[in-house]
Amino acid sequence: MQTRPWLEQVWSEVVRSGLPPAYADRLLTELSDHAEELGDQAEQRLGKAEELAGAAVLAYRSSSFAGRHPLAAFVLLPLLLVVAGLGVHAVVVVASLEGLAWAFGQPDHPVVAWAAIASVRLIGYVSPLAVVIGGWAVYRRCGRPLGWFLALALLVAGFAALIVTGFDPLMPAAPVDLFVKLVPPNELHRVAQAALTGAVGLSFAGLDRVRRVRAFATVLS
């Protein structure tokens, strides 16, 4: 039996299951040494390609929380983290504006007002984007299919569309008042928040597809 097709099948099954190509390459190198020693008995002694790949996938996924619990890691926790991020951002903004108000000696100073407007406008962008970027890092190490990360990105993007922030720059007030007195929903910003978050997630997904296609081309060539 030629071991090359068997090894390539193991590699393909592992990568199609969502494991990183780099891990599949290391597995392929390790199996190549054993297969070369066993020769025609490689498949009989080591197992069928599907079985071996399945065992490797199971072992890899069991090594991380996201690999074991994808629903929690890619659906439940991201939404909670966005909410927590909004809270942290709010605290930082209020504290910073209070500091600026103290530094300039008056809470309605133009610098304080415009800093409030800019920083609060960013609330709808920073937290969702941070969660998507963090989710991408988790996805690349958990061994789950790309669909889980896409679900995270789309859910967070949809949540970002619900975040409403905005002030009237012609009516600056005290920093805390600026943070509390929200203007009516700014649809343009809500669309932009969702679009930017979704675009970042889809860009990451596209890069992952390209990376995997290149890996397939290299191994199977």
Automatic annotation (TrEMBL):
It comes from the Bacteria. The keyword Transmembrane helix applies. The chain crosses the membrane at residues 71-92, 112-139, 146-167, 187-207. Keywords: Membrane, Transmembrane, Transmembrane helix. This is Uncharacterized protein. It comes from Singulisphaera acidiphila (strain ATCC BAA-1392 / DSM 18658 / VKM B-2454 / MOB10).
